[in-house]
Every structure is written in structure tokens, then in C-alpha cells.
Amino acid sequence: MGCRCLGKILNKGRVRRMRKNSKESIVEAAVFLFNTQGFSGTSIRDIAAKAGVNPANIAYYFQNKKGLLEYCFTAYFENYLKEIEKGYALLDEGAEVALKQIVVNLLKYQCQDIQLTRFILREMTLDSQMVREVMSTYHVKERYYFKKVLERGMRKKEFRNHSVPYLILQIKSLLNTPFLNSHYVHEVLHILPHETYFVEKYSRDIYQWLDAILCEPKPYDNRRIVSV
């Protein structure tokens, strides 16, 4: 009797792992195909074949292709905001510290899954209901955190006075360009965002830009070094 119960427990564990792996495989396959064939050019059968699952599995987890797209967007931006919030939590240590930590957090996050990052950023250039929903929720929250950090820095004289919306635009451009224009970055500039050195090198370049454009000069000893 005990053996049969143990067998059932182990079986359930295997089923849960298979379901988890199946769901992850579907998402990975979808992101790859959306990147290479486009969202409209990819069918449920294409995704199922690439993931090695039955098309019914996709319906089980996501209902349809649109549901799968929504899942990708939600998962990406929920974790994206968490990385911003980790840096924002350091605001009492100084706006410069918080802003630079946000920068390195976002770079690391975007490098974790370059395929997904590239797909999401590319989709965000289109005018769709999904994009409008993202802008009215996640992007509004993102703007809130950046605005709070930048305004705090200007108020405390850590930052020079600048237009906050234009600063956000420039910071976002620096963060997104390596992933949005990946072929240009790789084939023309020979920069490889998937390499481990990229985050350290590029984040330090952004820090230098922030120091030159935004940060008020201060003695070196007063600067806290943000770990990369």
C-alpha cells in the first residue's frame, strides 16, 4: 500500500515537471518563431512543432496565440518593473545611486533572454491594443519611478536641471538600442550583447554619460560605486 502511495506521489511530481517544462518549451518556441517569422506569420501548429508538444497543450495553457502573446508581455514587464523597483529602493542612499542601479539591473535583465527582449521591444513599436495596454500600465509605472528618481536628484542638487521627459527618453534609448537593433549592433559594430562582458562595459559607458550630462560634479570620495 505504502509503495503504491509513494508511486502516485512520484508520478504527480513527474507530471508537474512535465507540465512546467511543456509550458516553458512553448514560450521559448513561440518567442523564437515570433522573432524569425513574425507574430502574424507564425501559427499554433508551427509553435507546437517547434516545442515538440501537441497543439492542444497551447490551448490548455494560453487558449490561443493572442493569449500566448499576452503571457509573454505580462511576464516580461512584471519582471522588468521588479528590477526598476530594486534600484528605486536605494533612493534614500541618493538619486545617483538609485538611477545607476536601475540602469545595471535593466541591462542584466534584458540580457537574460535577448530573444524575448528583442521581440517585446520590436512589438512595442507597433500600434496595437496590446501595446496601448502596456503603455497605460507598465510604462506609466516605469515613468513614475524614473520621474521620482530624477526629480529627487534635481531637488537635492545631485543632478543638474534638465527636462525630465527628455532625460527618460535618452536613458530608455541607451538601454533599448542594443536589443532593438541587434543585427546592426552585431553585424556592423561587432558588439555582442549576449557576452558576459557586455553588461559591465556598457553600463559603465552609460554611467559616464550620466556623469557628463546629468550628475553634478563632486569629489570622487563622495561617490558610491554601484556594483555591476
Write up this protein:
The protein is mostly helical and 228 residues long. It folds into 2 domains: 1-63, Arc Repressor Mutant, subunit A (Orthogonal Bundle), CATH 1.10.10.60; 72-222, Orthogonal Bundle (Tetracycline Repressor, domain 2), CATH 1.10.357.10. 75% of the residues lie in helices and 0% in strands. The chain has helices spanning 2-37, 44-51, 55-62, 65-88, 95-112, 114-123, 129-155, 164-180, 182-188, 197-213. Helix 1 (2-37) packs across helix 6 and helix 4 packs parallel to helix 7. Residues 8-20 have low confidence and may be disordered.
User: In which range does the helix fraction lie?
Assistant: over 70%
Give unreliable regions as ranges. 8-20
Order of helices and strands: HHHHHHHHHH
What number of domains?
A: 2
Mind telling me the C-alpha Rg?
A: 21 Å
Q: SS-based structural class?
A: mainly alpha
β-strand amount: under 5%
Distance from N terminus to C terminus (CA atoms, Å) equals: 55 Å
| CATH fourth-tier homologous superfamily of the largest domain | Tetracycline Repressor, domain 2
SS summary, helix count: 10
- In CATH, the architecture of the largest domain is Orthogonal Bundle
**The CATH C-level class name of the largest domain:** Mainly Alpha
Mean pLDDT: 87
